[in-house]
Design goal:
Blueprint (H helix, E strand, L loop, with lengths): L4 H6 L6 H7 L23 E7 L2 H8 L5 E9 L8 H5 L6 E8 L6 H10 L8 E2 L2 E2 L5 E5 L2 H16 L10 E4 L3 E3 L7 H4 L4 H17 L8
Parallel strand pairs: 6-7
Antiparallel strand pairs: 1-3, 1-6, 2-3, 2-8, 4-5
Helix pairs in contact: 2-8, 3-8, 5-6
Amino acid sequence: MFKSTATRWLALAGSASLVLALVGLGKPRIEVGSAAHAPGRTSISADTAIFAGGCFWGIEGVFEHVKGVKSAVSGYSGGSTKSPTYEEVSEGNTGHAESVEVIYDPSKVTYQQLLEVFFAVHDPTLLNRQGPDVGTQYRSAVFYRSADQKQAAETYVAELASKKVYSRPIVTAIEPFKAFYRAEDYHQGYMEKHPDQPYIVYNDAPKVEHLKQQFPALYRNP
């Protein structure tokens, strides 16, 4: 179902109970920082990860605050429609999910750490929805670009499940990357440009605060 920007945040006004449900604040997480997870020396100066976890404004905003991330771009991935518009994706018929392309320096932050941040700032147990946004375009997904990324994502999901970090099964799709289409300019940096918009205040600001509290070693001001 298409939701305009205004409808998106008006649906939340006065619904404080949704704030806590959006990102699962307070859920335990698997500790990072072990030798296996720590950034190491590498000849690769940049790599790319693609994540989808509800509205791309908040996921982009989170990764913009992660050390080692060179850029975070809102866009569309996972579907078959070429060069889709926001309106087309919002109708739920393109197969695309609102996604974020994260370009990062592997010598400063690892793909494993990006996975840990991603799973911590949205609810991976919700099928085709996050907060007030409903539809396949808001699904939780990891679009892997290599066999290593696929294995890392599958292993981490299995680890979360075995440790029963969530009370419900994880439904995050682990899908092969097909293409990424950059969203319209007005979506880029939306959280930073509109910090006082109710949708941002209720949905996305808590995600960044959660990052700051749970991953202090990775947090930075953009």
